[in-house]
Amino acid sequence: MEKLVILGAGYGGMRVMQRLLPNDLPDNVEITLIDRLPYHCLKTEYYALAAGTAADHHLRVAFPEDSRLKVKYANIESIELEDKAIVLDSGESVPFDKLIIGLGCEDKYHGVPGAKENAYSIQTMEATRKTYEALNNVRPEGVVSIVGGGLSGVELASELRESRPDLTIKLFDRGEMILSSFPKKLSTYVQGWFEDHGVEIVNKSNITKVEPNAIYNHDERVDVDAVIWTAGIQPVKVVRELDIAKDSSGRVELTPQHFIPGNEDVFVVGDCASLPHAPSAQLAEGQAEQIVQILKAQWNNEALPAELPKIKLKGVLGSLGKKHGFGLMGERTLLGRVPRVLKSGVLWMYKYHSG
After folding, report:
1. Where is the signal peptide (predicted)?
2. pLDDT along the chain (355 residues), means of 10
3. Do residue 282 and residue 261 come from a single domain?
4. How far is CA 20 from the centre of its chain?
5. What would the DSSP string read from start to end of 88-100?
């Protein structure tokens, strides 16, 4: 049997399995999925779990069920491309004929002293559970600082405002306005929402140090009860350690067919892949669809397409608590209740109909 090994059950790995099983996987191919957890996690909703407004089990989606899918629960120690094997933390070696690397990302701390040790994270389910516990245990009328005014930081701050109205919430962002990569109309709306709801936005910030109960902005101390870091991501360590070509962000450079140059058997999907768009669940799923197309061509001994269509992204939707939101659909900016309702609908469709 030919062995297709998928590393990580994120949005990309999950979409590959959904498209190949049950009908499009050749009879002589079996899939081995390696992941730490027995379910796919809705990472885009980790902010709600951390804030305490979504239950843990609401963020889980079951893996496809098929006799040709084997699941190994483990951490990955290394990826041995030349030996075509995955080494697990138990010492076990898992061979592969074809490999899809979809291990996602981790926080990037930009060399800020104490940030890794003293700030909480929402990058993994395990880390998010710890963040939820920490936020839940913050003293009444305590102070929580969130570093990073991108989508994750904005959604976490707004959800935490609803969950813990007693808290003082400070959102630190390097830009002149949060969500600076979005149209000014959208950024202005979101910043105004925070001002109306008592969340302090600290623009033009520069976090220089993080301590257990303090954060330093331009070297000025701010006392806090908890710090959550949402200020940048990078590929996981096991991918950063691979001796292959990467871009300036450490993401793996790929051919137009999504495999490593010179190695048609190793694909990279999602946050670890160097692509012309910012990492997102949508992008990982679009990339996975094309990887399945290439796999089928390879298994059928067909010529591979020299180019693939550009992955079309439908837009971005973000929440401001449970009643308000924002979105960007092409050139159209959406503000208020409509984008929040749309986001809830998209999430429902994904959980119950994406397969």
Report:
1. none
2. 97 97 95 97 96 95 95 97 97 98 96 98 97 97 97 97 97 93 94 96 97 97 98 96 95 97 97 93 96 97 95 94 94 95 92 74
3. yes
4. 23
5. ETTS-EEE-SEEE
Give how many domains the chain has, as a whole number. Answer: 2
Residue 123 maps to a domain = yes
Percentage helix, strand, coil for the chain under 3-state DSSP, each rounded to 5: 30, 30, 40
CA distance 118 to 214: 9
Are residue 223 and residue 295 in the same domain, yes or no?
Answer: no
The domain containing residue 163 runs over which residues? 109-230
Question: What is the model's pTM?
Answer: 0.95
Are both 220 and 248 inside the same structural domain? Answer: no
pLDDT tens digits, one per residue of 101-134: 999 999 999 999 999 999 999 999 999 999 999 9
Last residue of a domain, one of 230, 259, 282: 230
Report yes or no on 52 lying in a domain.
Answer: no
- Do you know the residue count of the chain? 355
Distance (Å, whole) CA 160 – CA 169: 8
Q: DSSP string spanning 38-91?
A: SSEE-GGGHHHHHHTSS-GGGGEEPPP--TTEEEEE--EEEEETTTTEEEETTS
Residue 210 lies in a domain: yes
The answer on 127 and 151 residing in a single domain is: yes
342 beta partners: none
